[in-house]
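Question:
Write out your own:
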Amino acid sequence: MDIYASDEEKAEAIKQWWRDNGRSVIAGVILGLAAIFGFRYWTNYQQVQTQQAAVIYQQTSIQLSQDEVADAETMVNTLMQDYPASAYAVFAALEMAQSKLNQDEPDAAAEYLSWVKDNAELQSHRELASLRLARVYFSQLQFDQALSLIAEADSQAFGSLFAELKGDIKLAQGDPAAAQTAYQQALVQLAPGQPRQSLIEIKLDDVAKADEG
C-alpha cells in the first residue's frame, strides 16, 4: 500500500484487499479454530478413554485376586474390544493368560497371548507375549510353533530367554548339539552375574555330558 496515498485511497485499498482475500482469511481462521478445538477434543477423549480403561483394569485385577475368573474375563474382553490401544488392555490380557495357565487351560492362555503379540503398541509387550506364547507351545509339545516364534523374535531385552527356550526345545527334540549352541547364545546375551547364569551353565554341562555319552 502506498504510504503517501490519501485516507480515502487507503480505505478503498483495504476494502479491495478484503474483497480479494476475505474468504481465504475467514476460511483460515475457521480451520485454525477447528484444529485447536479438535485437538482439545481428541486430547480430552484420550484422557477419558485412559481413565475408563484404568478403572476396568483395576476391577479386573481385584476380580482375579478373588478368583472371580468369569467376571474378570468379561472385563478383559471389554478392554480388548473397546480399548485395544490402551496399555491396560495389554496388562489385563497378560494377567488373564497367566490365570488360564494356572487353571490348566493353555489354549485359552494362548489366545490372550496371541492378542497381545498382534495388538500391543510397545515392542517390549509384543516380545514378552511371544516369549510366553512360545513357552505355552513348548509345554504342549508343539515344538514347530514355538521355534517359529523364537525365529521371528528380534529382542535385546528377552534375547537370552528366547535362546534358552530354544535350547530346551532342541534338547527335547533330541538334538543336543543344537541345544548346546542355543545355551551358549543365551549365556552370551546374558549380563554377567545374573541369577540365570548358573542355571544355563548347568544346562550346558548336562548337554555336554549327554553328547559325550
